[in-house]
Write a structure and sequence with these properties.
The chain contains 5 helices and no strands. The chain is mainly alpha-helical. The radius of gyration is 18 Å and the shape is elongated.
Amino acid sequence: MKNLSKFIIITAACLLVQLYFPWWSALIVLAVFSALLRISPGTAFAFGSGILGPMWMIYAIFLNQTNDGILAARIGELFQGIKASNLIQISTTLATLMGGLSAMTGSLFMNMFRKNQRTHTV
């Protein structure tokens, strides 16, 4: 339940930021919220992947539908005839990886400043 509330907060923040700022602004939101909410690196990667991948896929499908696939067809021609569905899959995969890595980076950044709870004996 605790993780679900964090997931919802981060998703809402990413959606809100995406309305007004460039595409990469969601990456900053993922990193900052993962650091501030002290999410573990593995969970942060899952959150970032699970938020940004589907969000970008839905947006890419929406854009493709609104212009009747003309833009995707032209971009596909630039890349030696890639279909629109394959372009959406590629961009979704990249967004999933970038989201996961961004959130994990924020989490690991915060881990650098935590006090070491284990004692080191030599």
